[in-house]
Amino acid sequence: MTPLARYHRHLRIQVLLGIAAFTVALQQFELMFVLGAAAVASGYVSDGPRGRHFPPWAINLGAIGIFVWSITGFLENPDPSTTMSIVGRLSCCLAVLRLFGRRGAREDRQAVVMSVVAVVAACLYSFQLLLGVIVVVFAVETVHVVMLNRLRAGLDHSRDERRGLEADVAVPPVEPAFGRAPVIQFRLLVGGCVIVAAALATGVFLIFPRPSDAGLVALGTRTGFSPTVDLTRSDQIEQSNREVLTVQWSDPQGVPIQWPQPLRLRGAVLDRWNAADRRWIAAETRRFRRTVTTNGDPTDFVPLGVESVDRSLYTQTVTMRSLATSRVFARWAPVAIACDRARTFTLDPANLEIEDNLGGGLDRFATYRLKIAPNPTPETIRSIAGDAIPPVRPPRFEVAGVREEARRILAERAPELLQPAPAGDEEAKWRRNRLIAQEFTDYLRGEDFRYALDLRRFVQRRGVDPILAFLTEYRFGHCEFFASGLAGLCQSLGIECRVVTGFVAVEFDDRLARYVVRESNAHAWVEVRTGRWSWREFDPTNSRILEELQASRRSWADDWRWIYDRADFLWTSRFVTFDGTSQATLADRLGGLVGGGGRGLLERTGELARQVNRYFQLGPAGYIWIGIVAFAIGLAIVALARWVRRRRLVRRLLRASPAMSNRRLREAEFYLTLLEAFSVAGCPKPEWAPPRAHLDTVASTRPDVAAAAAPLIDLFYAIRYGDRRLESGERRTLEREADRVRRIAGGPAT
Amino acid sequence: MPVRYRYHLNLAGGLYLGITMLVGFASTVRPNNLLVWIFGFLLSLVVISGLTSGGALFRLTMRRLDPLHGRVDRPLVVRYSVRGGSRYLPLFDVRITESGRGADRSDGWWTYAEPASAWVMHAGPGETVHGEAVFVPRRRGRMRFDAFEARSSFPFGLVGKSVTVRQEMETLIFPRTLPIRENEIDRLLGGGVGGGRAGSGLGSAGEYAGLREYRPGDSIRSIAWKRSRVGETPVVVQRAIPAPPRLILLLDLRRPTERLRFERGVDPREREEAAITLAASLAESSIRGGVEVGLRIAGIDLPEIPIRGGRRHLDRMLAHLASIDLEEGREDRTRAVPAPNVAAMVAIHVDRVDVAIGHERCWHLLPSNLEDLVERNPDRLAPSDDRDSPKGSEVAA
């Protein structure tokens, strides 16, 4: 038994983990199957009993071939953003190829470095939970393999050195250390290194300087909510079926129901097209913003504007699964809000956008509830918005060509709408706006336009606006292009409208009576102003296509996502979105804990207890249970510490080797009580004195204690040196006898 | 023993730091928290690398164990006792090498052998282990060790740590020996010297040699009671003990190296060493064959070795030959020559035979005779001339 016994196996596992990390991050599972199978096969081919290896020239030739293949792949699509993916793929292939060659410690190190490069490349492209788990396991395995590699290098070096010696007689060989002790100590050292490294890495993670909105910037090129609409990207977007949240839609009686239409959950509202940056932005209406504060009770609604909450409203309950965001997704029009955490929300009354003030804070909400008025009256909106609703004025859309395109469409489909509404007839103006928006929506839903997530053929050209290119040239794209096209067409004709991003809930789970919202349900649509206090939703994306697309992406695995979506939420909310704001919050909390002289800690403990109680829904009696459990845990910790201390003392007293069994240590524990008794009797035993000799000393001052202890000391000798075994009953009797001696020692001398 | 601790930066550590900085840069440019954690992990490994092995290595205690003596072209195993000083951290992958302090010294170990290192794979907390370095000395003499260094870059090979301990030690390297054919030894002994010899002692040991009258002081146990008549002087049994053949080796080093005469291209010092090798080979083969051997060195001020047998006597003779310093001044003084019936004699000269220094039955040999005397055994390694040949390397491996 030597620490190096399974070195090759660990190296193979490490390479496999590197491949898994890379392929999971880039979703290249076919590569995982090919390279993984090859890596596993190397265990039988190269590291098996026959040990067959590829000759060095074959390895070099293969490496050159892979290198040329990678370079060719890059030259075919010279996109700098794909460079690291090519490097990662190259590293994976080279690492596997290296496994088939004749290897020393140096070649093994090369394979390790290749795997590390692959994992780093993977981390540049993804941050999902599965990758995180693989990376952590990979880090542990890498520490293990590198340490084994050091031992292997030392052994190889010594063997080579001895092999090179020329002498008249044979030179003694070098052998690695054998036995349990080296193996156990090596594993302990690996474990210790991993724990310390992980702790230090977490420390670096916490203090690493970050921007305050890193969590939002980090979102990658796959379906998912984004608070901005950016039309500069021309890449392929992956469909992700990850559950981000669930929505329960209850009628005024509180019964969960399925709404006849898809629920459009508004996240961000953008009303101005920035042609220079090619993205939709929100107009700053900071001065109208208001804050509302929830008290942590999910049943206690706080009105957003109206004085009292009408009980006839619908209730929307959102439970976060994997998405960690400060945005509140609400159906039009939210009237009141409640949350499971005490939070302060900011409401923009102009567009009813709600956001948690905590931003990238640590303690994100998990559930919030909203009272919704699906068809709000102007009075309701007025009570919420107040003066925040902008005055009616035609918007400006400064992209040449869009207005002409809009007029061309109207001329083809509804030439009567080209005529302006009669002056002074406000109702006619709103109706005309609604009709124009509907015409444009129908036009975009027509045969000429195609929904597509692969935008690689959508070439972005300087000087050509992507909205105009979408409308006139390419006529394909995803929902953001469709919504941008509709908003652009409307605004070019002076119709007030805005692009809204969020989720569209269409998948209703009958068993849970909830909508399940996935990342692929992220959506963008348009709200057109159809009255002084009213806005109407128009979705230019064909919903049938969306539903078909979603149905085609469904798999059996989606039914099991609930198992890890909770972990995914924690991962995303605590790790992925940890940014500068979270750091500041953490620093404040630590400062509060340290600076408050323990009061902050007490408050934090109380808050924690409240959260636990709320999570298990135990009610007021829950605090009693929490107290009992905390007391039991504390008691267990004290007992464990006492047991460990006694066991260490016994081990030291017996000068026991690590190999001595726990049973023997347990049998000799009564000796500790005896030593305590001697101390109580005023005759503490010096370390150098043998027990029997000390008993004579005790007999001179406390003969009663010595007489009681004598048979126990004899038994101690029998256990320690005579290999005497005790039954459990005998052991208990001995402990009782030792306690008796202690009581005698505590009493008066006789 | 003076101890010195040092840290060493190596190429692997530099490369690692470079990669770590790149990852740090990437995690700054591309805000991905997973990358940040990896960056932290990579950084923490540097810290752990310094602390782990430094904590274990800088507390260890080491000493070199005296290897007693070595022999030219034979492995000289130098052992190092290593004790981990940390209570909790075990030692792994420690390499111990002799340092080249005092490079100007002519008797440093590096003038005798190629560098060698001992490797200790594991030493538990507080545990003492031994590491072995195998030197193969290439010349005889007093090989001097000064300081040695324990180095480790475990666990990750990023930062090297070393502990240097100074412990002076001197080891005698015996001359090279080659096996001499048995019949050649017999020929040199002449066949006549040796056999049974009447011992001075009486008693039960040895072969029966005869009877003689009792002399005061004889043991009562040696009296042959049946032969002794009443009233007369008792007789005692006289016994003979086996007397092995005896050989005296006379190494003639009277002429200084610079006055030796050889053909051009022959190194006189090399021939002197060959003469010493011949003497050592004859001594070893003879003693192994049961011959008692004595050694006298003419020209060097060293005491003569009396005629004895046995392994310890052989070591004494080899140590004597090893301690010959050819740089010393020579004396043109002839050693006393014993009578031919005392022992056979072989005089070994360096450049030419001088019959004056031996008795009339003395053999006179030159270093060139060694090739004729050496046992031809294909299993043994080739002599030193073939050492550099590929075949020699293969056999040695």
Structure description:
The complex is a heterodimer of chains A (750) and B (397). Chain A is an alpha+beta fold. Helices cover 51% and strands 12% of the residues of chain A. Chain A has 5 domains: 7-207, no CATH class; 229-241 and 394-507 and 520-563, C8orf32 fold, CATH 3.10.620; 243-264 and 287-388, no CATH class; 579-617, no CATH class; 639-746, no CATH class. In chain A, the strands form 5 sheets. Chain A has a 7-stranded antiparallel sheet with strand order 7-10-13-8-2-18-17, covered by helices on one side. In chain A, a hairpin with a 4-residue loop joins strand 11 (344-348) and strand 12 (353-356). In chain A, helix 12 (466-474) crosses helix 13 (479-492) and helix 20 packs parallel to helix 23 (728-746). In chain B, helix 1 (11-29) packs antiparallel against helix 2 (33-57) and helix 4 (268-288) packs antiparallel against helix 5 (311-322). The longest helix of chain B is centred in the N-terminal third of the chain and has 25 residues, at 33-57. Chain B is elongated and about 120 Å long. The chains are: A alpha+beta (750), B alpha+beta (397). The interface between A and B is large, with 65 and 56 residues.
